[in-house]
Amino acid sequence: MSPAKRITVPKFAAMKHAGEKITMLTAYDYPTARLLDAAGVEGILVGDSLSMVVQGHENTLSVTLDAMIYHAEIVGRAVEHALVVVDMPFPSNLLGPYKAIENAGRILKESACQAVKLEGGADQSDVIAALVGAGIPVMAHCGLRPQAVHTLGGYRVQRDAERLMADAKAAEAAGAFAVVLECIPADLAREITKAISIPTIGIGAGADCDGQILVIHDLLGLSSDYVPSFVKAYADLGTQITDAVGRFRHDVREGTFPGPGQSFK
Ligand code: KIV
């Protein structure tokens, strides 16, 4: 696949000013990334949610930089049209600007992805500025920061309006091209969206963000454990897979698969 036809970072950011809503989903593997790209989403995130939905860990802290790059390289080869963003896993952006450039640089060098996402706002503005200065586009992630789950004591709606507004403004001032707003009240997300000129991408942040993102496993009904209340499942693939596998097992045990149509003469 050629990334030459992809939505660029400036085009993605310009969608806000054109009044066009932005759709983003996560992907971690080749076939899924191709399907999402074919469906026309503007952005694909290789999220650190990989840790939970693919690797089966309890939170996002476990996934390594090497694992993120492994999946980013696969997704990067699959996507032709969408902007591809990769999460900086914990704590790859927290060790100072120099280390952050080294880690984000590896992501861009070793995959055909175009930008990184990092959890942080005002507290990460020096890192965002350093990455942007090094030619690495940054999507910030404010509101609920899943990598801070132990500090927060759980995944809760974030309501500190003053801090969240300051975080989003600091991310914009530092050069971020977009900001994810996770789990914040819809009114506050609307205010932030009006106050900054870069696109806001909401997840559990109401309808007035410039775009929306969901974890693909949640959207497709593939998540076996807890699904947050802000998710809308557009399919129930989990049930369909279990049903299909059950029918395969039944046919094998009954001797009706393979039949003449699936056998060689
Ligand atoms: O890791 C992730 O999937 C995310 C979301 C914004 C969906 O960060």
Features of this protein?
binds 3-methyl-2-oxobutanoic acid; 11 helices; TIM Barrel; 2 domains; 265 residues; 42% helix
CATH architecture of the largest domain: Alpha-Beta Barrel
What is the name of the CATH topology of the largest domain? TIM Barrel
Supply Rg: 20 Å
Trace the largest sheet across and list its strands.
1-2-3-4-5-6-7-8
- In the residues, how many domains can be counted? 2
Which CATH C-level class of the largest domain is it? Alpha Beta
Q: How many beta strands in the DSSP annotation?
A: 8
Residues in β-strands, percent:
5-15%
Report the biggest beta sheet as strand number plus sense, adding barrel if it closes. 8 strands, parallel, barrel
Low-confidence stretches are none
Helix content: 40-55%
User: What structural category characterises the helix and strand content?
Assistant: alpha/beta
Termini gap = 38 Å
Shape verdict: globular
Q: What is the H/E order?
A: HEHEHHEHEHEHHEHEEHH
Q: Number of helical runs?
A: 11
The molecules bound to the chains, other than polymers, are: 3-methyl-2-oxobutanoic acid
- The average pLDDT score comes to 97
Under CATH, the homologous superfamily of the largest domain reads Phosphoenolpyruvate-binding domains
Give a description of the structure.
An eight-stranded parallel β-barrel has the order 1-2-3-4-5-6-7-8, surrounded by seven helices. Helix 6 packs parallel to helix 8. The mean pLDDT is 97. Helix 9 (186-195) links the parallel strand 6 (178-182) and strand 7. It is built from eleven helices and eight strands. The protein folds into two domains: 3-234, TIM Barrel (Alpha-Beta Barrel), CATH 3.20.20.60; 236-265, no CATH class. It is globular and about 70 Å long. The two termini are 38 Å apart. With 265 residues, the protein is α/β, with parallel strands linked by helices. It has helices at residues 9-17, 30-39, 50-53, 65-78, 97-110, 125-133, 149-152, 161-174, 186-195, 216-219, 237-254; strands spanning 22-26, 43-46, 83-87, 115-119, 138-143, 178-182, 200-203, 211-214. 3-methyl-2-oxobutanoic acid is lined by residues 26, 45, 47-49, 87, 180, 182, 203, 213, 215.
